[in-house]
Each structure stands twice: as structure tokens, then as C-alpha cells.
């Protein structure tokens, strides 16, 4: 082809092509034979910026005159549509424009929350608190805890005894402190052990410590960011068990539980209930939360507490904490007011048996042989809550003695100030 025709063709393309072909030709012309850019680099289009603003970059866009106007419909069609609209029932106007939050009907009927004075505790704008989903989350947790129930007195007919379980958990609390694990890990360890033991009645005394260590190993994997190595658990057992035995027991436990480890913990519910209490009472602070945690941990080694739901333990511990730290001597059923009933789902009448068990547990903790939890809460990190002066006040003594006597498992209580 002659040179004149090539020059004419290139000039025609550069004149008539303002779209992608022009950009392609300019890009190719800026490349040298070595593959590097030698000419000026064109400015890149900002993301979605020039699509609507720069009209020159839009190709094949029809103008306003290209659009056809809609055809007029006959008058008969309009009359038919008007008759149909008159026959269809229209929704009645609502008096309330605001959308009300949904409440679980079953839980509402259980304690007649329609007549309660409820304070909204989910007004925060912090997105980390997920106030939009928090009610659905805790509704799901309540459903989930009922699917992983531990039977009362599940050790009947076993070769192991509840006292062995108490000794094991008291020792595991010390191991938990040596490893500096999270609080959730300890609760999940005990819950996993109880759930496994109730479906495995063949566990003997020699394997009970192996079950406890393995459950803590599993719970560490589930909760911790940095899990202790398996050699650490072998060392904690004084080399009574090998690495293979722990791994074999781990597989046995996970198969027995069908790999279901998502049972809710009392701490999950306690944080919600404490938040509700802080909105109700100005004097509720971290001391109430710490005392509630102390009571819940005291119940871990006790065999008679293992069948209670986590939400029940959290509600009962907070209810007793409000009474112990209350300086106005308000009745406990008044302290557990409508807002706390609504957000916990339990009235004081439903929590009273558990509160009585907690009272007897506090009384027995001072003379018990198993002092791991009590020593744990003697440090300043936990505000020395186990040596709280309120435990020795005459009013608290009289209240706990009265509540403990209501407990069927409590035999005898003697105080010098019982008449107070």
C-alpha cells in the first residue's frame, strides 16, 4: 500500500474516533519498542466520577429527542382502573407512625410484660454494641442453652462420685490460673466436661482427670487466641497421661458431643443483665458485676448447680449481688424490678430457690476444703471480693441465714447475730 494512503487512513481514524479506539491508538503510540512508556501518560478516570460528569466519554447514548413519548390510553381503561381501585380495600391509617420493636410473645406471656414499666437499654449509637440485633441474639442464646441441657443428678449409678468432680474442678481452677486463660475458657471447660460425662457413664476414676484436662484443651482452642500446647497439659498432669492419650480423649469427647461446643455461658447473660441494672440503678457498678462472677464461679465445683441453665445462674447471682451491696435495705423482690424481669425473663419467684443455694454456698465457702476460687478472688484484680465486708454485716447474715434455711440442701446454720 502506498505511503499516502496510510497517512490518510491514520488521519481519518484520529479525526472520527473519540472513544476507545482513540485511547488505544494513543496508548500504543506511547509505547517504545522495549515495551516501556515513552510519551505522556493520559490521566486515569476516577472511579464512577467521569461516568456521569464527562459526556465525551459516553458513547452510543441516545438523546432526549430519541425517546418516544408513551401513547395515550383510551378512556375506558382509565374508568376500569378507577373502579378496581374503589373495590379493593384500603389499609386503615395507623395512630403510631414509629415502628415498635418486636418482643418474643412466649416470654411476654410468661411474666406479663405488657403491664411492666420497661426502660430501653439499647439506645446507644455505638455500632459495636449491635443494638439492632441484640434482642435476636439473646433470643437465640436462650434457645441454644435449652438444647444443651445437663440433667440433674446425672452421676447416679456411675463409678465416679460428685466429690471427685468437685476435687477435679478445684484443681482445674488452679491450672486455669497458671495458664492465665480467659474466664470463658473455665466455664466452657466445666460445661463440656458435664455434657460429656452425662453421655459416657463408663468413665472411671483414673480417666476423670484426663477428661478434665482434655476439656480444658478443647475449650482453649475454642476461646483462646494463643492456646497452650499439649505438652503443657502433659506437664500439668505430672506426666500421668501422654500426648496420645489426650488426643485420643479429645476425639472421643468431640464425637460424643457431635462437635457441638457453642453452649452459651453464664458470662454472656451476666453482661446483658448488668447493663440493664446499670440503667435502672445509679449505684450499680463493677463491684456488682465482680461479685456476680464470684458467685457463679463458686457454683462451678458444686454438683447441685450443674443442671441450672446459664441464664438462670447469671440472673440469680446478679439478684443476690444487688441485695448484698444494697445499703438501703430494700427487699430483694423489689430490687429485682420490672426492667430486670423483662431483660432476664425470670421473676424473683423463679430465682428464689437458686438465690437460696447461693446463700448457703457463701456460708460454706469459708470453711470448705476447696479454696481455689476463694483465693483467686482475694487479689486486688478482683477487688478482694471474696473477703467483702458486707458478708459479715448483721443484716446480710440474717438474710443469708433465712434464705439458706429455705434451701432444701442446707442442713444447719448458726450465727451469733441471727436475731438481727
Automatic annotation (TrEMBL):
Disordered: annotated segments:
80-118
> From which residue to which does any coiled coil extend?
none
**Chain ranges of the Cyclin C-terminal domain:** 264-391
Q: Where is the composition biased (Basic and acidic residues)?
A: 94-109
Q: Which residues form the Cyclin-like domain?
A: 170-255, 268-360
Q: Which Pfam families match?
A: Cyclin_C, Cyclin_N
- Identify the keywords attached in UniProt to this record, alphabetized: Cell cycle, Cell division, Cyclin
Family as reported in the entry's similarity comment: Belongs to the cyclin family.
This chain belongs to the protein called G2/mitotic-specific cyclin-B1
